[in-house]
């Protein structure tokens, strides 16, 4: 199931590698929807509010671990492309020790700080007991999130994107089955919903770790790899932290936008909540394609295949732009109907506001698709700090423009919607302009 990303047809290799990653994210989205439906239908609005708020919190916490694993995965992929298995094993050991330590510290902090965290989130009194019950259980899954993502990014660095998909698919199905048993049949409440998630996370994390140990014996560390030198440790920390901070900045920027949206009242809040779900689902394949593209670049960067990187970058751009144009057209035409999936047809104000958002964002999905590729490119050529810079430009300008434009009476909430694609555009321009100068790669044919 491994794919040598340094060989074969460039476009076909990228698409075959990216396919399982995209499908895996779709499965995860389907689970999130199923979980919401089960909790909302059988436990009521307060339970749904508790689980929904906890999901936002867990997304932020897990984004830290996912960012660390993503950054390390790029390092693994570079050494795999170089065929330097010795250094790759040193990097694996350093990365595992580092991210495991971060995971343990993070887990300890959230358990100790449950009540202060819920206070900071301003959880209403009616929801507080339910959310406390849920997070007290769900926090046990943080370590398993680390295990799954560490080994998933390790296998993807080897060109294997199918096995992580299989374990994610099994965990998703198990999670839904356990949700039905614990919540619907055995009436275990929100604690049961959390337990279902943790059990599924444990299976996927432990399972993929055991699979990797059994099926990839060449990755077992020997005596030479157990001594981690300072250079290896610094490289892992640098790449991991850059990707981690990027993920955290993205979530922080979204929280700031959410606060501004809330100031426009419940109609805009409801419209934004529904539209963002559609928005995220629409461009998710482009995001996963960008992650797959990053590992393609990493392997070829390690192998020194500059021409293949040039071809891959241009063809990935064409594929992403074509996909985003099709999705943009579909979202623009079907925006009102898509809003009615989440909102009753009689809520005309919410549907109208959500449709405005989707038609503005949807018209510019090419911008976010290109930005995901730029993130992946800079991680792949060992310039992770540049990905962080682009994230700060995109989200910083978005937040700044939103807060400047939305108070203007003649613009209002539309200022928030328009600030988002403007932020994408500014980051895209910066990223493209810096490719040759900062990475050493030219995308045009030499003169």
UniProtKB/TrEMBL annotation:
<keyword id="KW-0050">Antiport</keyword>
<dbReference type="InterPro" id="IPR002528">
    <property type="entry name" value="MATE_fam"/>
</dbReference>
<feature type="transmembrane region" description="Helical">
    <location>
        <begin position="388"/>
        <end position="405"/>
    </location>
</feature>
<feature type="transmembrane region" description="Helical">
    <location>
        <begin position="316"/>
        <end position="342"/>
    </location>
</feature>
<dbReference type="GO" id="GO:0005886">
    <property type="term" value="C:plasma membrane"/>
</dbReference>
<feature type="transmembrane region" description="Helical">
    <location>
        <begin position="57"/>
        <end position="80"/>
    </location>
</feature>
<feature type="transmembrane region" description="Helical">
    <location>
        <begin position="162"/>
        <end position="184"/>
    </location>
</feature>
<keyword id="KW-0406">Ion transport</keyword>
<dbReference type="GO" id="GO:0006811">
    <property type="term" value="P:monoatomic ion transport"/>
</dbReference>
<keyword id="KW-0813">Transport</keyword>
<dbReference type="GO" id="GO:0015297">
    <property type="term" value="F:antiporter activity"/>
</dbReference>
<feature type="transmembrane region" description="Helical">
    <location>
        <begin position="92"/>
        <end position="114"/>
    </location>
</feature>
<feature type="transmembrane region" description="Helical">
    <location>
        <begin position="411"/>
        <end position="435"/>
    </location>
</feature>
<protein>
    <recommendedName>
        <fullName>Probable multidrug resistance protein NorM</fullName>
    </recommendedName>
</protein>
<comment type="function">
    <text>Multidrug efflux pump.</text>
</comment>
<dbReference type="Pfam" id="PF01554">
    <property type="entry name" value="MatE"/>
</dbReference>
<dbReference type="InterPro" id="IPR048279">
    <property type="entry name" value="MdtK-like"/>
</dbReference>
<dbReference type="InterPro" id="IPR050222">
    <property type="entry name" value="MATE_MdtK"/>
</dbReference>
<feature type="transmembrane region" description="Helical">
    <location>
        <begin position="362"/>
        <end position="381"/>
    </location>
</feature>
<comment type="similarity">
    <text>Belongs to the multi antimicrobial extrusion (MATE) (TC 2.A.66.1) family.</text>
</comment>
<keyword id="KW-1133">Transmembrane helix</keyword>
<keyword id="KW-0472">Membrane</keyword>
<dbReference type="GO" id="GO:0042910">
    <property type="term" value="F:xenobiotic transmembrane transporter activity"/>
</dbReference>
<feature type="transmembrane region" description="Helical">
    <location>
        <begin position="134"/>
        <end position="155"/>
    </location>
</feature>
<keyword id="KW-0812">Transmembrane</keyword>
<keyword id="KW-1003">Cell membrane</keyword>
């Amino acid at each position: 199931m491994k794919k040598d990303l340094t060989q074969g047809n460039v476009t076909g290799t990228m698409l075959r590698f990216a396919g399982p990653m995209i499908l895996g994210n779709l499965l995860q989205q389907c689970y999130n929807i199923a979980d919401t439906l089960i909790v909302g239908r059988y436990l009521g609005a307060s339970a749904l509010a508790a689980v929904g708020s906890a999901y936002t919190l867990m997304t932020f916490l897990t984004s830290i671990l996912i960012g660390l694993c993503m950054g390390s995965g790029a390092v693994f992929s570079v050494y795999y492309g170089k065929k330097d298995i010795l250094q790759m094993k040193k990097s694996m050991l350093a990365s595992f020790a580092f991210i495991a330590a971060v995971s343990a510290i993070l887990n300890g902090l959230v358990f100790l700080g449950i009540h202060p965290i819920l206070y900071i989130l301003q959880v209403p009194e009616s929801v507080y007991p339910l959310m406390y019950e849920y997070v007290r259980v769900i926090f046990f899954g943080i370590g398993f999130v680390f295990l799954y993502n560490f080994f998933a990014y390790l296998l993807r660095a080897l060109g294997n994107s199918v096995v992580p998909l299989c374990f994610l698919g099994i965990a998703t199905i198990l999670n839904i089955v356990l949700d039905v048993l614990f919540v619907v049949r055995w009436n275990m409440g929100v604690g049961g919903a959390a337990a279902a998630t943790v059990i599924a996370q444990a299976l996927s994390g432990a399972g993929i770790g055991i699979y990797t140990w059994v099926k990839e014996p060449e990755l077992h560390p020997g005596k030479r790899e157990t001594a981690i030198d300072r250079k290896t440790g610094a490289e892992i920390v640098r790449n991991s932290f850059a990707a981690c901070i990027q993920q955290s900045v993205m979530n922080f920027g979204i929280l700031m936008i959410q606060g501004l949206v809330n100031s426009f009242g419940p109609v805009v809040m409801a419209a934004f909540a529904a539209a963002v779900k559609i928005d995220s689902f629409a461009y998710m394949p482009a995001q996963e394609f960008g992650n797959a593209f990053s590992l393609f670049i990493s392997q070829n960067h390690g192998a020194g295949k500059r021409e293949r990187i040039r071809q891959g970058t241009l063809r990935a751009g064409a594929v992403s732009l074509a996909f985003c144009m099709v999705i943009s057209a579909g979202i623009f035409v079907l925006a009102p109907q898509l809003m009615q999936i989440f909102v009753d047809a009689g809520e005309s104000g919410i549907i109208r506001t959500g449709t405005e958002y989707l038609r503005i964002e949807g018209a510019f999905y090419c911008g976010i698709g290109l930005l995901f590729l730029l993130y992946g490119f800079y991680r792949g050529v060992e310039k992770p700090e540049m990905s962080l810079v682009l994230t700060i430009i995109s989200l910083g300008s978005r937040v700044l423009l939103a807060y400047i434009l939305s108070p203007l009476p003649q613009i209002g909430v539309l200022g928030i919607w328009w600030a988002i694609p403007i932020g994408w555009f500014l980051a895209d321009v910066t990223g493209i302009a810096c490719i040759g100068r900062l990475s050493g790669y030219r995308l045009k044919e030499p003169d």
